[in-house]
Write a structure and sequence with these properties.
By secondary structure, the protein is mainly α. The chain has five helices and two strands. It has two domains: 72 residues, Multidrug-efflux Transporter Regulator, Chain: A, Domain 2; 47 residues. Strands 1-2 form a two-stranded antiparallel ribbon. The chain is elongated and about 75 Å long.
């Protein structure tokens, strides 16, 4: 499929797909006229890349992990990297949960009339 078709199916921009190729995360072949062509499996690959980016992984880290994903094999190094990323995400979740709880406390506190505050 052509780059525009992949972008539509994977719900990403053409620019993102070109960037993924530059970073070595996605591969294409070229038609005789020079257009990029992708396999149907590229849709799933792009969605995986998007999920990993969404989780905060860098393109370098994703590039290190994708060969293991492709081979369906992990190494001690890849498992260590995955565990470190999972732990980083867990820390972010805990921090975000704390921030949300604090916001909820502020919302609750400011939802009640307070005669000492004119702005609420």
């Amino acid at each position: 499929m052509r780059i525009g078709d992949l972008a539509t199916k994977a719900q990403v921009s053409v620019r993102a797909l070109r960037y993924y190729e530059e970073q070595g995360l996605l591969a294409s072949t070229r038609s005789e006229s020079g257009q990029r062509l992708y396999r149907d499996s590229a849709v799933g690959r792009v969605r995986l890349i998007q999920q990993l980016y969404g989780a905060g992984l860098s393109s370098k880290t994703i590039a290190e992990l994708l060969p293991c994903v492709d081979a369906k094999v992990s190494t001690p190094e890849s498992r260590k990297l995955l565990v470190a990323e999972r732990d980083r995400i867990d820390t972010q979740i805990a921090e975000l949960t704390l921030a949300r709880d604090r916001l909820n406390d502020i919302i609750d506190a400011t939802s009640r009339p307070n005669p000492q505050c004119d702005y609420v």
